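Notebook entry, structure prediction.
Reason for the run: the old model in the group folder had no record of what sequence produced it. Starting over properly, with the input documented here first.
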Amino acid sequence: MRLVVALAAVVLLAAGCSDSVNPTSVCEDPPQIELDRMERAAAPGSDVRLDPNPVSVGERAKLTVDGPAELTGEYATWQCWDGDVWVVTHHLLVDQTVERLPGSTVTYSAVGFPLPHEKLITVPDVAPGVYRIEDVISEPGAEYAVIVIVE
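New structure, fully documented this time:
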């Protein structure tokens, strides 16, 4: 039964994937206070890693997600700090990086993978700096994210 509920949560997350904040061309490194907040907001027992990290544009890297949630979705979001909030600029799927255009709505199929889960992602064409990858997880309110350094 828990698996059905978790799968339903992933279905809802995947079907409703329209981001509330439009990406801008202005990205900056997040302040230390935001990095500290992310650490506190991480789901207890969660583990999100990118290998290698730091990365270069176009490089393939392995995103590993583990934790108390049961399922993860088929994609993750690439985010930049716009000076106030994390803004989704790309969706990361296996073998595909999709740019998130301002005002667009994107819907993906609801595929759930049990944790732990690994997926290969391609680093988008972005300027050097500090970014965040957030994975879509079946645990509402939990943050499963990792800071990424692009050289």
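Summary: The CA atoms of residues 23 and 101 lie 7 Å apart.
The old model has been moved to the deprecated folder.
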